[in-house]
């Protein structure tokens, strides 16, 4: 059996990715940092400086020092990233940055089975010796201005703390659900598909993960094209992987023998009661409803297991309707995928809409990057045309919506209703019910990884 990738055309082609990686640093942020005696510099992944950049980033997240093996592995898989540091020439270890940030051009899936180029931001740390002097703000604004100048319509990130990024226009747009399921209480009432579940090697899992993900990610708003290093982490296939031997991998093949789903999990024994082990699902990827049902059923019916845990699931999982006792599942929702629109017309024209309507959006942007007045005209087939309107111009019959770029970003993937934001007094509209229907979507957005 062979599984061949059938990727859709890239919306972020290699040439655009290279151009963003090589784009010069933002002059405004460079000047602001220089006024405080700090240097804003790119760090090349192949240079010696990358290892101290990495150590500072790990320390910033309160993590331990990286080993030579881990540094070598990180170097090998970081080539796609634009790596930047802020340096303090007066510090005793002036070669190590006082602050770090990394970014790259990726793809974000949006409602309607499409994707949009998006600047992913990661590794934001400011050394505790340099905190609260505006360094993070300079780096964030700098990367957003650079992405905007490069014509990238969207930015995205996952966060350690929820309070950090709203001020730059980012909004939580896809929640993550963490599940704990009491397996004996759950009782499977879902389908029992005809295909089969089999164990596979971690190496085979590593091979299949990107293939299946690329085939299915555009159907799920919020998902991104996953950098290869993440798949190594899930599969435990790198030399620096910890406890790789604990990972068990299975795949689901349909009746024709095609691989349609994958799962990797670990089992933690309960030494007081060997019938009560806990399964932790590292990653579950299903291309079809059958694969989804078969893999979850396999996990929930494992012998000697009392609880299954999984995280980064969608807020609205079919799994809840495949178990007899919904209270067997404890589900906790957390903000997860943050997005920030940088180009309103392009962002709005890329996604699809469930309702035909004409909406006039009056959008404010604290960073002055994407605000303005935009006429969104959605046709019967759900595609939209967006026109930028001059200040003060209105359109007969259009529903007006006044909101900030953060609120528009929050509703963009369909994860929250405009009506909810209106009730929270964060959005105003002459006809909020219709406006909310226009921006709604039938599946909850999801992002299955951290980055
Ligand atoms: C979070 C962190 C990057 C902030 O860096 P910093 O240089 O001190 O931040 P700045 O001085 O530029 O502050 C920028 C703004 O964020 C606010 N802010 C900074 N840290 C904050 C925190 N932990 N909680 C809430 N607000 C915070 C500041 O008040 C400031 O607000 P304002 O500009 O609107 O007045 C830094 O403390 C850090 O590295 N923390 C550990 C790693 C981490 O959590 N990184 C974020 C990864 S997602």
TrEMBL record:
Acetyl-CoA binds at residues 124-126, 132-137, 160-161. It comes from the Bacteria. PROSITE patterns: GNAT. Keywords: Acyltransferase, Transferase. InterPro entries: Acetyltransf_17, Acetyltransferase_Eis, Acyl_CoA_acyltransferase, Eis_dom, GNAT_dom, NAcTrfase_Eis, SCP2_sterol-bd_dom_sf. The active site is at 165 (proton donor), 451 (proton acceptor). Pfam families: Acetyltransf_17, Acetyltransf_9, SCP2_2. Residues 38-194 form the N-acetyltransferase domain. Residues 1-28 are annotated as: Disordered. The keyword Acyltransferase applies. NCBIfam families: PRK01346.1-4. Belongs to the acetyltransferase Eis family. Homohexamer; trimer of dimers. This is GNAT family N-acetyltransferase. It comes from Microbacterium salsuginis.
């Amino acid at each position: 059996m062979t599984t061949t990738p059938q990727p859709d055309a890239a919306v972020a082609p290699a040439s655009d990715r290279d151009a963003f990686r090589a784009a010069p640093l933002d002059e405004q942020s460079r000047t602001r940092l220089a006024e405080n005696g700090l240097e804003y510099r790119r760090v090349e992944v192949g240079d010696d400086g990358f290892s101290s950049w990495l150590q500072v980033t790990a320390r910033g997240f309160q993590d331990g020092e990286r080993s030579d093996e881990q540094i070598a592995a990180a170097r090998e898989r970081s080539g796609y990233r634009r790596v930047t540091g802020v340096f303090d020439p007066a510090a005793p270890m002036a070669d190590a940055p006082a602050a770090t940030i990394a970014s790259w051009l990726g793809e974000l899936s949006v409602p309607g089975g499409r994707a949009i180029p998006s600047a992913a931001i990661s590794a934001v740390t400011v050394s505790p010796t340099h905190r609260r002097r505006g360094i993070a703000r300079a780096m964030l604004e700098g990367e957003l201005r650079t992405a905007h100048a490069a014509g990238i319509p969207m930015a995205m990130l996952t966060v350690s703390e929820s309070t950090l990024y709203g001020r730059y226009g980012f909004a939580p747009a896809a929640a993550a659900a963490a599940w704990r399921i009491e397996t004996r209480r759950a009782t499977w009432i879902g389908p029992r598909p005809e295909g089969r579940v089999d164990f596979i090697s971690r190496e085979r899992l590593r091979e299949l993960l990107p293939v299946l993900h690329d085939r299915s990610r555009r159907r799920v708003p919020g998902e991104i094209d996953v950098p290869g290093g993440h798949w190594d982490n899930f599969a435990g296939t790198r030399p620096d992987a910890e406890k790789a031997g604990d990972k068990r991998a299975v795949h689901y093949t349909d009746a024709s023998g095609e691989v349609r789903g994958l799962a990797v999990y670990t089992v933690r024994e309960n030494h007081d009661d060997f019938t009560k082990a806990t399964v932790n699902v590292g990653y579950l990827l299903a291309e079809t409803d059958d694969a989804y049902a078969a893999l979850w059923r396999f996990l929930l019916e494992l012998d000697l297991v009392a609880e299954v845990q999984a995280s980064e699931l969608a807020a609205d999982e079919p799994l809840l309707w495949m178990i007899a006792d919904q209270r067997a599942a404890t589900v906790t929702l957390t903000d997860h995928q943050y997005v920030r629109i940088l180009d309103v017309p392009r962002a709005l024209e890329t996604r699809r809409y469930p309702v035909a309507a004409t909406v006039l959006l009056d959008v404010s942007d604290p960073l002055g990057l994407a605000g303005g007045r935009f006429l969104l005209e959605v046709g019967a087939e759900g595609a939209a045309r967006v026109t930028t309107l001059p200040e003060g111009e209105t359109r007969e019959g259009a529903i007006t919506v006044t909101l900030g770029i953060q609120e528009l970003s929050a509703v963009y993937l369909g994860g929250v209703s405009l009506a909810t934001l209106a009730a929270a007094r964060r959005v105003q509209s002459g006809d909020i019910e219709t406006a909310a229907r226009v921006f709604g979507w039938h599946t909850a957005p999801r992002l299955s990884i951290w980055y």
